Protein 1
Amino acid sequence: MDASTSPLDRYRIAAEPFYQPVDNEVSVFEAAWQHRLPVMLKGPTGCGKTRFVEHMAWKLGRPLVTVAAHEDMTAADLAGRFLLGPEGTMWQDGPLTLAVRHGGICYLDEIVEARQDTTVVIHPLTDARRVLPLEKRGELIHAHPDFQLVISYNPGYQSAVKDLKESTKQRFIALDFDYPEPVLEAGIVAREAGTDTELAGLLVTIAGCTRRLRGQGLDEGASTRMLIHTGRLVAGGVPLEMAVRAGIILPITDDADVRETLGAAISACLP
Amino acid sequence: MTLPTASLPTLNLAAPAPSAATPFGDELRRQMHGRALLRASFEETWQALRRRYEPAALEPWATGVLELAKVNAGPGCLLAFWRASVTLGRRLPPDALGAAGLGAAGLAAANVCRAAGAPAALAVIEAFERIAERLDAEAQRRWWTMMTATAQGAPDEIALFAGHMPTLLARGSLAEVEAFATAGRRAAGRDRARRRAFFALEDPLSRRLLARMGAGPGFAELEVGLRRLLAALWGDRPGFPPSLQPLPVPEIGDAPRRANIAGPVIRLPEVFSGVTGAASHALYRAASAHAGAHLAYGGPRFTLGKVKPVQMACINLIEDARIETLAMARFPGLRRLWAPFHVTAPSAEPLAALLLARIARALFDPGYQDPDALIAKARALFAERSDRLDDPALSFDIGTRLANDLGQRRIRFDARGHVVEPAYRDDGLGLWDFGEENAERTEEVELAVDAARIERREEENAPQPPEAAPQPEPTGRARPAPADERGRIVARYPEWDAQAGLERADWTTLREVEPALGDPRTLARALERAGPLRARIARLVRAAKVGRAVRLKRQVEGHALDLDAAIEAAVSRRVGETPDERVFTASALRQRDLAVLVLLDTSESTRERLPDGASVLDIEKLAVAMLAEAMAGLGDEMALAAFASAGRDDVRYIHVKRFTERYSEDGAARLAGLQSGLSTRLGAALRHAGEEIAGVRAFRKLILVLTDGEPSDIDVDRPSDLVADARRVVLGLRARGIDTFGVTLDPGGVGSGAAIFGTTNTMPVRRIDDLPMRLSELYFRLARR
Ligand SMILES: Nc1ncnc2c1ncn2[C@@H]1O[C@H](COP(=O)(O)OP(=O)(O)OP(=O)(O)O)[C@@H](O)[C@H]1O
Ligand SMILES: [Mg+2]
């Protein structure tokens, strides 16, 4: 395929996105890519799922089409629809169709947010058939050999109402993401926020306190993303305690008692 | 607060007409001059007071004395009152106690005499003389109010209570003593022996309350936060967060209590005596973190073997230093938490306890200087092993060696009286395995005996407030009893006593009352009249049905274009077909899984009439009827209940509509039949409502309470206690996944709604006429979440 004319060109990632491997996720993903197997990234918010896909897309030299799923998303939002033009109707490919046709990685972020009847459009794409039927157009697209589907999914949010269908789940290779080991995470925070490793380490210790409160007053612990934001505040000159308050304590809970306890635990972390 | 009621003495008609200026003073002098026994003392008192006060200013005082004479308080009381008047008048500045204050005291003492007799009044007057200096004028008035109330509630015990007054007020604030008196009257009820024991400070409850005075916030208030703190610090370790339990406070005069670790349980004193406010908070945190560090970094328990008490104490000390050092390596800020408690300093006194505290400080605080060789040795030994701090055996080794040195110096160690310092540290008993087979040996170790004492006391005190008979059934389970006119007893529920800081088991009795049937047509007519409102609610019902994001495509009307349908329609038109006009999207109700219980307060305050003649209860009924219609329209699970109370033994609960039945004519008749009356013991009713809704299977459970937001009951002096109790129930229900919302009829906007339900879960209704609309709106808002 002539890359210079592909409509996916604007989805190409030019520079290497920094990604710190945590486990063997890179090699597993590469193996899945070899066979174009669909991949599901599971893990809490802000732990590097999006960054990982970007990195892999860059590494494999494929364009990356990202779709953030939401409740109102319909199959047409993924596959495409007719638009009215001066000359009559014209078809416009949806993001999924683009990737299928021209061979890119399609990343469906937070797939559980979409309704189940939307999610089923990916079924024929993610089994041996690798096809996408566009009923409206009466077209059956055979996926480009370089097409791959990646979805992400945060098991923490899932409730009885929001979960993936069994038949959807079982089509994917799954990679489990979590916040990396403290040393690795500190390295990531230091690099992304531009702080020294000592401060980054401290932020990671603090994050540990919040993560242990999951289910004990907090729904989720502080994410790597939160630590990076807080680190940036400090690097920008905000005093540490103030930054921790603004970057972690206040966003993470509205409960005054929990905030107070969190304050005490965080104070125990600070030198 | 008002003065105890006492009418002015009626004057003896036979007496000479008093002069206009000082009628009571004149009358008093006339009467006293007629009593040989009292004449001289009276004159002396009168002269002394006259030197301080103008005759006119002495009028209230004279009134008080006349009243005392009138209730036959007897010469003893009068003499005591006069003596108190002179000494206090001399000792206190007039703004703290003037002649008017003395007069008020006399009137109040007369009331005590009326309620409990002359000896009681004498005791109270004498107590007043001893404590008046501690109280300002306003506090003195409160004190007399408390004494009068206690004299009425506990006439045989008021003298005992008065006798202990100096002790009580030395320990606690007036407010705490007031709470103590109330708790005593309440807890003992009609049980005279119990009441006597309570006010004699011999009852376990009164000892506990006394020990808690002048301390707090305590375990009950801080527990949740402490548990979270431990989870935040070490929650990833096995056994975390540990269970936290309260230790009953030691009685007055006993050694202060320390935290105690028992296996996976951390036990903390109910309060740390004499520690209040932020300091108490800090001490609890320090103690929890220390105990948590033991659980996180401790090894298996040491075997007691032949270890002597002094060795044990030293080993504990080193183990404390070891686990704290490890904890601070990970959480350096813990040093800030613990440091303020290490305050001991070098001293020449050869006391083991002091030396131990100094070693503790030396191992904690590198900057601490102490010339004693033992301190240097402890530091050196500990430093030697600093690379192997993971090994608890080092505590055993170093501790044993230090104990030997203490022994060689012939420093006596008082095992029985030993209290671990600093105060945040645990008693160390949890580190030891006393061994079953070693029972005899265990008894030799006095510390162990101490431990046993803790267990025993807890058995006496902890499991239940003593007044509660042991209940085989779990709390709140129905224990059917024959119905009387007040209804069938179906459950007993605990109640939170905010003043005592404890939960009283089986404190309230809940009765289910057969509903009276009213005329459903009155309600139907009211609904008719409220036509426009009803239409609005009907619209809300429709909105709720579409409020959930299930998209309906190809609708005739809707909030957005259905793009695909629109395009198809456009295509059809171009090719000359008749286009399908259904080109909109709408949303429809996603499957709802909601159960709602509406709890209706029918207490006396709902009898109030509005200008149009309807009572508050009428509007409540209308509001509920509308809501019931709406809910039936949505197919939500729904129940209606009403409550009122007449004391803790009589909390009434009426099922207007149960979850299991349909809302029909019958339900409407029962709703129409509700009558206003009695009081509002909200907590008990909420507990029962919670039981009712807990049995329903639903994803989301709501209790909507319709109340004036002011819990009260005939046997409760301080409504704030019932507010605190209701708050506790609301929190408990939330923990069980049941949300409680208050719609409070609160025209003034001053009610306790927010204090009970929380600000976001309260909807104060200022205009009662708005109630039906607001109630339904609230429901729809909640149902959408
Ligand atoms: N392993 C990693 N290597 C490099 N950066 C990382 C890594 N993990 C997290 N980050 C940083 O954390 C930030 C948040 O990660 P990312 O946006 O990928 O989270 P996510 O898992 O996709 O979260 P969400 O589920 O909320 O979308 C990234 O911008 C990146 O800076
Ligand atoms: Mg992401």
Note: Residues A 18-20, 22, 43, 45-51, 109, 154, 180, 188, 192, 224-225, 228 surround adenosine-5'-triphosphate (ligand 1) (CB under 6 Å).
Protein 2
Amino acid sequence: MSYAYLFKYIIIGDTGVGKSCLLLQFTDKRFQPVHDLTIGVEFGARLVAIETKPIKLQIWDTAGQEAFRSITRSYYRGAAGALLVYDITRRDTFNHLTTWLEDARQHSNSNMVIMLIGNKSDLEAKREVKKEEGEAFAREHGLVFMETSAKTSDNVEEAFINTAKEIYEKIQEGVFDINNEANGIKIGPQHSTGNSSIPGGNNRASGNGCC
Amino acid sequence: MSFLEWRRFNFFDINHNADSKKISQIIGNSKITSTSSGNGYLVICDDDGLVHLITRTFQVTTFRAYQSAVLLATQLQYSNFLVTIGIDEPDSNAILKVWDLERRDRQSNPICVRSTKLSKSEKPTTLCATDNRLLMAVGFVDGCIALYKGDLSRDRNSKPKMLKELGQEITGMAFSSVIKNQWYLFVSTASSVQQFNVTSKDSCPMTILDAVGCDFKCSVLVNGPDSHFMIAKEDAIYCYTVDSRGPCYVVGGKKIILQWFRSYLIIVSKEVEKSSNTVTVSTTTKNFDEIESVSITILDIQNKFIVFTVTIREILSVLPEWGSLYILTTGGNLSQLIEKDLQSKLTVLFKKNLYDVAVRMAKCQQYDSQALIDIFRQYGDHLYTKGDHSGAVEQYIKTIGKLEPSYVIKKFLDSQYIESLTTYLHALHKSGNATKDHTTLLFNCYSKLNSVDKLQEFIITKDENIDFDVDVAIQVCRQSSPENALKLAEKHDRHSLYIKILLEDRYEYTAALEYIEKLSTEQSVQTVKQYSNVFMENVPKETVTFLKKLCSTSYTSGNVDLSDSSAQPEDFIYLLLDDSECLVDFLEHFENYLDKWSTSLLNIYIEHCLIVWKNESNQEKRTTIENKIINILQSHDIKTCDYYQVLILAMSFDFKPAIVYIFEHNKQYTKLIHYYLSLSDYSAAIDCCRKYGPTEPMLWILVFNTAMGDEMFPSSMLEEILNEIEKKSLLSAHFTITSLIKSKNVKIGHIRAYLTSLFGAEKKTFEKEKEMVNKYQKDSENIKNTIQKLKNCAIVFQGLRCSACNNQLELPSVHFMCQHSYHQHCFQAFSESDNDCPACTPNNKKIMDVIRTQGQIKDDEALHNQLKQTTDSFSLISEYFGRCLFDDPSTFENQLAKFKLSSPVLLSPKLVVPAVQTPPKLSPILAVRTIKPSTNPFDEDDDDQMRYDDNKNPFKTDYDETKNPFADDM
Ligand SMILES: Nc1nc2c(ncn2[C@@H]2O[C@H](COP(=O)(O)OP(=O)(O)OP(=O)(O)O)[C@@H](O)[C@H]2O)c(=O)[nH]1
Ligand SMILES: [Mg+2]
């Protein structure tokens, strides 16, 4: 599997907001109605295309339970993107966002792209957090915002891909040091299985040079 | 942390003392230093330098590998090589040995195929080798790793490559190959995890994966598509891929051993906290008094279950072999863990209503589909009873194709669940398992739910993958949303239904017409025929226009023969029968194709023209119509025009021009005159007589007869009639006069001319005939005299020349009464019979023939024919009498016979009697005059004469006509 870049993501947020479901929907395109607590960190990967470039997304889905916080924190470090998730039907998950954000900012590299996600948009009837509130919070903290539903897959794809786009733009702008893997970005293997990817590799090299 | 744990199950059975204490006996007091398993063996090494190979049946082979002690051992998984590191002499470098377990020496000990002294004196801590025997690594206590490349079973002097020093003792190593021919070596120390790419010969770049490490035996490699190197830490198990951290599973306890078996992660850990919440398995309670309780936990990583936990004292190693797990304690006790079969696992899951897990598990193990369906159904039932209907439907959908749909549908029939039912039905359609009833139900659901959008979507997507009965769908849609029904109908070419809906539900007649117009001719004809009545009732004008268009295409396209598919005007006439004007207008549209019209069409057209004509008061228009009809009659091909029908029509409408035309056309002049007379149009009748009289004189008689009976008949015309009758002697004068006398309104003045001429003519005839009588009387008198003479007087033969050769007559000679004389030799040469005069024979023969043939006309038919053809039948019959044709034929024959008999008497040369006895001359003359030439019996005889053999005729060449002795007689 050849790719131009590998981006590492992390999904954080209170327990039960639907982090694992988002990941499952994104990687497997299915929905899990039963809440299987994440005990530790789960992991998923998928290949996407940004501006026709294949990009591999490696995603850590962390446990939201307070008890696992110490373990999950160690995963912030190598991530280029974070999905900060709250549940629009539970206000407390929204209220905890500040704590999560501080935590993330503290343990991750400063350039990490954070996408704020209000999940379970399909449960409009049970909504406790207005969309505007989410938007306002995102604006205030310089985040990208999106409401999703892991159940109906509404906006799920977009959430992951838009984050990737954002990261990609930052790379183009030269914000990321792509040679430092601690940033959660890795250049694809130069010696990939297909011969055709060799010119692609050259392109990347030249692209990097100009940045 | 115990409540933040995965679900617990018991999917393993434990078999304590699997080896019947064999191992502990063998080991005795020695200390086990290293264990391994693979390729059918459990391998146990001790500090005495012995290696114990244990087979499945617990047959033990013990051999001495080292003089002092065995430090490390690894058995290759699928090959018969065992690698060991041990010490032969104290204070010298350890020795690496490779054993071939297949090849045995005399003591049946494996043969050592390689023995290499390690290059370092430091203590080796870890050993690993790849199954293909090409890579091997030894880790040392100081953080060095020696990498051996090349066939490790060969004793070569190849020096190992020393990898980058890690500065800390190596606690775990594993080779991994994610991509083919790409080899990585995962290495763990107490405080780090890293990976070396050992693919290339020269450099082996290192990647640091984490800054946490693990103890001995606390790392394991999981091979497979997403291969992970796992290390066990106090708080959790961390996983690594070749390039990054992977997932992490939080499991508490101080880890002692990490092992992988099938898809299970086996963790042996010490409970640090004395609260020991985890120790709940009953079998472990007896060990509760132990100071240090060691528990073994098996995790199903995929499903996130704890599938087994047990507490066992002093676990030394966990060895997977022969499809199960073996747990070896320091004392040499061996326990076996056997995985339960799938069915019993599923039963457990069902009990806990973990259907989704059951499904996942069943799928993983290639469970057969029927059983899976059953799980889905149970799951669905479970969710249903829980009240999660949408969830239940989701499960039921998975049973489609196997489970009878009615099972599911029944459950959701309540209107509360209609949404779920809809989902199910939709899926049913998508899978192509839907019947008509399902379609009906689904559409009803849609309409009940008022979800027009969904319905539309369903309808639109139909083409691609959803199969349903379109007709039913349309019917159902009709009731709720005609809009959609129309769409459906249009999409699936249900034109007739489309029109039906337009007409019956929406009353959009013109729209319907427009729609039909777009269809192919065949289709539109079909549809129009079906609904023509409705169209006519509601939008007659448009309909007629439409029909005109439709029908003319059938004419112009030229394939009129395909009568079922194309539109024939006939087919639509019935619609317009009530409105003749309209019909006429309609049909006139096709006037240009008149020659293609059928007979019935033409009749109908004429009939309705007549109706219009009859109802028309405007004289001018009437004449136009008249002209039109006559034109059609004139111009039309006789084949298609049924004049008889038209005549009846014309009669019933009193449409004179057509009647007259047809009578004339059919040459039915009699009828025509009758018609005229019935109209009392006498002059027309007379005109007609004048016109056709020459060919049909009877017309005059007809008029005459009518005139006699009809008091209204203008007598002035009588003159002409009488004149005509007289001229053509159509009626006997007697009859005419009788009729005239009977007639009441005939004035003598009108017939005077007739009578005068009549009598004048009569008189002339009378005189003529009188003359004739006189002449005939004279003639017969003459003949009588001749006969008398012949009978009684002597005859003087005065002929001087031979009638044959015209030379002087010489004796002997022959003389006939006809005054012909011959030389005897001439007579003999020419005569056919001795009795006949050769000169007279032809003529006599002719006469005889006539008499004979006359007798042969016995055929009644011939007579009748002649009677028919002749104008004067009376004379014909009298002639027949004259010829005795009505006599009994036998008597005639007798007469002839008698006559013949008399001839021989006249053998002596004398006149042949028959010559004189011919019928009276008058008769043939009469016949020539009256009988048509072709029937003249004499003419026929002329023909016969032609057949007379010319060669025998002596008169033909020798004499010219003037000298012919018979010329006078002729
Ligand atoms: N209706 C609805 N339910 C959702 C959605 N996403 C998640 N859920 C449900 O929310 C529950 C929790 O989902 P998870 O994804 O397991 O939650 P999590 O954030 O991973 O929780 P932790 O692993 O404990 O951090 C599950 O029962 C899901 O079915 C959504 O978009 N809509
Ligand atoms: Mg989770």
Note: The longest strand of chain B covers residues 95-104.
Protein 3
Amino acid sequence: MSVGIVSYGAYIPKFRIKVEDIARVWGDDADILSAGLMVYEKSVPDLDEDTATIAVEAARSAVSRHNIDAKRIGAVYTGSESHPYAVKPTSTIVAEAIEATPALTAADFEFACKAGTAAMQACMGLVGSGMVDLGMAIGADVSQGAPGDALEYTAAAGGVSYIIGNKESEMIAVIEDTYSFTTDTPDFWRREGMPYPEHGGRFTGEPGYFKHVTGAANGLMEKMGTKPSDYDYAVFHQPNGKFPSRVAKMLGFTKEQIKPGLVVPWLGNTYSGSCMMGIAATLDQAKPGDRIFATAFGSGAGGDAFSFRVTDKIDEVRDAAPKVLDLLKDPVYMDYAMYAKHKGKIRLA
Amino acid sequence: MSVARFWRKQINRYNIVGTHCKTCDTHYYPPRNVCPKCRRDGDIEAYKFAGPGKVVTYTIIHTAAEGFEMQAPYALAIIELDEGPRFTSQVVCDPKEVSIGMRVRPVFRKLGESGDKGMIYYGTKYVPDNDRN
Ligand SMILES: [Zn+2]
């Protein structure tokens, strides 16, 4: 049975902080940082926004984009590394808010930045086997970097929801195949109860990101017998602008192929939302028949690669919900003091 | 508020679900089980509101209650839904942006939380509907 994306929806909070405003606080050189990271500003959640509220907004956008009867959704899985509760699922809040309850299964996923794509694969299995009619996979995060840590320049907030189904007549993109590459690699982690993650510094790049993204991407192309030139677009997990640009080149994809999906320079790293946001931004402008290659990465570590073929249906539903570029438009900028307040870095005794 | 008390009305807060009296065509939010106009002749059904509405009047809160200090100053408004009912809600935006008659649309936000250990309360707040102002 073929499986594919029936709808999608994205959400980005309206606040931004510029990398130069963070650099000023820590005495870093903003120009060198921005050039090195290829990130100029990042999104910041409002005081009353968290992963659950962002997931709900993204989920509602996906439901309304294709006018989906939410009662058809038989599974809701939310991937995040910043679920608001340690115990108590985010996915039940989402399922209730979109009125998909109570006849469905729900659970939260956790795999650093690729929890959302792992949820997509689980939904593919459920709809592919006919166990459920439609499945919803969400990647959402309000990520934190410790003050002064390199991650603080990029850790952003946002979420994306995909509705996965098995009726080809409903699909806006067929998922041609998926392939994952997973090892036990301690490149990044956060212990229970700790507010900020720890990372292996330089260790995160080669044995983490590059090994697993190329492992998954090459594995999928080998499995399918495809090559980079068979694709119109490509999306790679974007913790910054540099990593996806470099890995695209290593794999043989061009700058033009990754351009529509490379949203990190003006958004920052939305962690579980990162690769899924890039796919959404690419769907926002893809044409029927286009093929999209995507590879998500999660520390710990693993890569999930996907091959999509866009259908004629895309033109019918694309404009019915805000596009990623619409969500990036007209941001409200804040200074570091307001940012610290928004991110709970200031606490009242 | 107790966990149970919040949870019982949760669906009405997550989505703006109220009631409608079929006899006199009046909409209620928060929901009413008996129509105060028609009383025994009333015919009440559940009703999910479309969402959009407008600001009838508002006040800016500078000295917020416990748990809301971080959000001050913020706008607390009486919202009138397009179907008629009025209720109080926070309007999430720069307080200087709020005006009487301004079109607003619902968003899903945190309403509050019981300290660091307790439950987090979610529900509907309003933001300016910039496409319609
Ligand atoms: Zn009545």
Note: Residues B 21, 23-24, 26, 35, 37-38, 42 surround zinc ion (CB under 6 Å).
